[in-house]
Amino acid sequence: MNYRKIKLLLLLIIATFSLQAQNGGTGTYSFLDLPYSAKMTGLGGKNVSIKNEYNSFAFYNPSLINTDTKGGVNISYLNYVAGINAGMASYSVGDTKYGRFLGTIQYVNYGKFTEANQYGDILGSFSANEFALIGGWCMPILDSLITIGANSKFIFSQLEQYTSFGLAFDIGAYYQNESGNTSTSLIIRNIGSQLKSYNNTNEPLAMDIIWGISSKLEHAPFRFSATFHYLNNYNLAFAKKKSPSSLYEPEEKRSKFNKISDEIMRHIILGVEFIPSKNFYISLGYNHKRRQEMTDSERKSITGFSIGTGIKVKKLNFDYSVAKYHLAGLSHHFSIYYNIFRK
To answer: By three-state DSSP, how is residue 340 classified?
Structure first.
């Protein structure tokens, strides 16, 4: 047992609490928080406590990098909203004497935009893209019941003629009990800053402290997950109007209990999986923060809910999920995992 590593991890976690907290959506490079895994999308958009053989969440939480993943290739495509497309590709080198390593590239393409001057004259078109190169490292300790990990992320963003570079880090720890049915993880994401700003105005990254727990029933094919995000910032709610029809309509009046319960629920993402065999699953997720921010007060719809499924055939894993982000439509997510060296 290496207690020195544990002390170092605790010191890093405590130190980051002194950093300035940022609300979700208020920091730059927000594309880093997109769910680049179809399995993650199906569970509500965030999950840091499930470790599997094809590293579905390891790009997000490096302490989840699995042992038996040498030669594992993961490719994912997300048809997001309003013509926005995102994707991810990762490769795992498996176990080495220095730990486990995972290389990932993430991108988002915001599409084409019409360029016009202040008089409405069309001048042409422009595009907007962002991507990140991520190197992940993981090391087991305490007889492999605990693993610790870290990501380093080089970020590039181009929005029309403006460009920005940044560097960020994630640190996390994962624990699984001896039966393997319950696991929990704590991760601090997006610790870093811009190296080059868009227009000589430095913007902070939206740091996110996430704690998650997952538990599989011993005698039933169900696994339940709860993910608590933005623990470094209590205030995620904002004043919401009764209807979007008028900018000057008075704010919706709510009781103190409703305000507090709503604020608490914005920090929680819930997921459940039906796993009748190790080669197939169906998942359902609920993201309250997304529902409150993206829904229409007069047409609630199923915004905030998501559903997914996955199947494994020999060396190939295929995941598909669909999520309701807005009344405008559904977002579809596809992920494929293939292990080059597995027999």
So the answer is: coil
